[in-house]
Amino acid sequence: MTDQNDIPRVDVVRGTPTAEELAALIAVVSEAYSVETATAVVEDPPATADWARSRRLRRPLARGAWGRFRG
């Protein structure tokens, strides 16, 4: 069941479009959205080498300016 807030809404702020013009607008925007979502890709984050990860774990603790350990 769809919630009232999930339904897309089109507000006409100027002019008086016909039902056919609104249908054409919705068809064009829907198709453009479908194409964009189908071709969208997320780049993989760069892989961290194992040696770099283990190096961070072996780094000695150092005192900061306020006497607290940082690391």
Question: Describe it for me?
Answer:
The chain is about 40% helix and about 5% strand. By secondary structure, the protein is mainly alpha-helical. Strands 1-2 form a two-stranded antiparallel ribbon. A hairpin with a 5-residue loop joins strand 1 (about 60-65) and strand 2. It is elongated and about 70 Å long. The chain starts with 18 loop residues before the first helix and ends with a strand. About 0% of the residues are buried. The mean pLDDT is about 80. One of its GO terms (molecular function) is propionyl-CoA carboxylase activity. This is Acyl-CoA carboxylase subunit epsilon. It comes from Microbacterium betulae.
Short description:
With 71 residues, this protein is mainly α. It contains two helices and two strands, in the order ααββ.
Give the overall silhouette: elongated
Main sheet specs: 2 strands, antiparallel
- Our count of helices gives 2
**Whole-number mean pLDDT:** 78
Order the strands across the largest sheet as they lie in space: 1-2
Give the % helix.
40-55%
The N- and C-terminal alpha carbons lie at a distance of 51 Å
Report the uncertain regions: none
H/E element order: HHEE
Beta-strand content estimate: 5-15%
Structural class of the helix and strand makeup? mainly alpha
Radius of gyration: 27 Å
Number of strands: 2
Pfam family, one: ACC_epsilon
Organism: Microbacterium betulae
Protein name: Acyl-CoA carboxylase subunit epsilon
GO molecular function, one term: propionyl-CoA carboxylase activity
